[in-house]
Design the sequence.
């Protein structure tokens, strides 16, 4: 197998799988990402391990399920000592670099307990989810959990776009007829142009920074995580993208009256969220979705710029390019907004992989219906960059056989988890935080959602691809619910935390029996000798 030199892993925050033209969007043209798909493999059934930024990304970055790494919601730190992709790559001499967003929260208490200096190299890697930060920007500042003083603010000031909070005042605001600032947080302003000149807006800026990293990367193999904060809200975009699309380009919402009248307590509680009530209104969708589309169009144009640079510099020949998102966006489908639950609008993501190796020539321009999880990227990168497999740590599966067109036994189920202990729904449902959890298992047709303390939900995506008919209480589907429940339980019973001994070490321990010097269960010396083990007390003359 040919070894891969570099990986450019692009992630767009909150990008729905079906808002690219190569995935079938009827109005939004994304020729540059379509072109990437034409040179690689487009995955049709890729799912995240949690439909919310933080835990989803922590699964991507560790190659582990949410219950394994423990960072179950936004603002929950990844604990000190949790192995990351960056740790694995540095072991084989490759650098793992961040340009953009991670949603990582450092485990400051753990670092203090262990005496780890945050300014040291190990402290930086621990605080930055294993990445070496070239530039970090999580997009929301100055308040919040994340980086409160990103370089982007100073960049705007250097362009003459100053103010107390340049990001808020320029990138996240429009200007009214009387010169007043109109906040991008307010969705009624989504159709207005952001004040920032397009060339200085967030997506072009981060593209430039990604190119600057590649230019100075040198000869050492690298993985660059180029992570964009858009098309995540606030839904506002600079001209000319602010009015490229209108209400006529908005796809009708996927939803039914039966969903609106659901008897499922969790689903009903989610519909009561402010953002879900907002996106249930047509006027909101018709105002916001064109801006969302404009943000995606801008991203695709920047991909054209980036790919042209890679081609001109020869980097297309030695660099794998991966395009993904961390979750989707309901945009009013199923009477919901934002993400959080497990409909395909939220939990399914676009995933495009261009592999420059000759071994991947047979799959160029193809699609795959394999059930893929976000955790599959880490073992894929590790294998292609020359590392040894670590199945006791990395719970995903390498995608290399699929990229090379080889027959392989693949997983039967995709798993996703959601911890809603911090959400308003828990209070409405009056349940203990320990029970505020949802789990999804999907076999390619049936999607089963376990809601602790309540009945399950079930969708038949073969006959109901829009997921508008909940079969979770239908007697005729009891058998499939029982089958998927048992499969979910079987997954839960697997080892998720035994990461300090590799399988081959465990096998050696089993083959060796008891450690040297330990003789348990033997009756006498003869039995001991017959086993091939050494005598407890070799013959000695105690009188000498």
Sequence:
């Amino acid at each position: 197998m040919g070894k891969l030199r570099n990986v450019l892993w692009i992630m767009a925050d909150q990008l729905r799988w079906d808002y690219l033209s190569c995935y079938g969007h009827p109005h939004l043209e994304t020729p540059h990402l379509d072109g990437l798909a034409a040179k690689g493999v487009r995955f049709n059934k890729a799912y995240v391990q949690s439909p919310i930024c933080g835990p989803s990304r922590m699964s991507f970055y560790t190659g582990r399920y949410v219950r394994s790494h423990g960072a179950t919601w936004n603002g929950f730190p990844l604990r000190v000592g949790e192995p990351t992709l960056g740790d694995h790559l540095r072991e084989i001499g490759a650098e793992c670099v961040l340009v953009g967003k991670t949603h990582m929260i450092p485990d400051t208490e753990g670092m203090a307990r262990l005496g780890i200096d945050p300014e040291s190299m190990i402290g930086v890697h621990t605080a930055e989810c294993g990445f070496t930060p070239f530039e970090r920007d999580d997009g929301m500042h100055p308040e919040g959990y994340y980086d409160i003083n990103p370089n982007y603010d100073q960049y705007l000031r250097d362009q003459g776009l100053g103010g107390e909070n340049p990001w808020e005042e320029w990138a996240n605001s429009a200007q009214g007829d009387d010169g007043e600032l109109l906040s991008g947080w307010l969705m009624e302003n989504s159709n207005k142009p952001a004040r920032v000149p397009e060339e200085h807006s967030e997506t072009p800026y981060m593209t430039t920074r990604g190119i600057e990293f590649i230019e100075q990367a040198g000869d050492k193999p690298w993985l660059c995580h180029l992570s964009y904060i858009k098309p995540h809200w606030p839904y506002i975009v600079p001209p000319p993208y602010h009015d490229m699309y209108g209400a006529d380009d908005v796809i009708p919402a996927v939803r039914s009256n039966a969903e609106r009248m659901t008897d499922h307590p969790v689903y009903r509680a989610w519909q009561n969220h402010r953002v879900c009530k907002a996106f249930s209104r047509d006027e909101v969708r018709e105002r916001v979705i064109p801006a969302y589309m404009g943000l995606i169009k801008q991203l695709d144009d920047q991909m054209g710029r980036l790919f042209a640079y890679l081609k001109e510099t020869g980097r297309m020949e030695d660099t794998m390019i991966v395009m993904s998102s961390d979750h989707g966006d309901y945009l009013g489908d199923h009477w919901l907004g934002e993400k959080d639950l497990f409909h395909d609008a939220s939990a399914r993501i676009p995933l495009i992989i261009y592999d420059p190796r000759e071994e991947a020539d047979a799959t160029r321009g193809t699609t795959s219906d394999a059930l893929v999880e976000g955790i599959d990227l880490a073992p894929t990168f590790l294998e292609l960059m020359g590392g040894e497999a670590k199945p006791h740590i990395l719970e995903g599966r390498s995608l290399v056989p699929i990229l090379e067109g080889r027959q392989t036994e693949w997983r039967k189920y995709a798993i996703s988890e959601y911890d809603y202990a911090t959400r308003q729904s828990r209070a409405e449902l009056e349940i203990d935080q320990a029970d505020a959890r949802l789990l999804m298992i999907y076999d390619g047709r049936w999607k089963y959602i376990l809601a602790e303390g309540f009945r399950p939900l079930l969708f038949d995506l073969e006959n109901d691809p829009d997921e508008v008919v909940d079969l979770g209480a239908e007697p005729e589907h009891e058998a499939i619910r029982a089958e998927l429940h048992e499969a979910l339980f079987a997954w839960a019973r697997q080892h998720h935390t035994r990461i300090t001994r590799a399988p081959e070490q465990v096998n050696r321990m089993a083959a060796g029996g008891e450690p040297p010097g330990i003789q348990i269960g033997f009756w006498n010396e003869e039995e001991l000798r017959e086993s091939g083990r050494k005598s407890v007390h070799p013959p000695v003359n105690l009188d000498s």
About this structure: The longest helix spans residues 282-312.
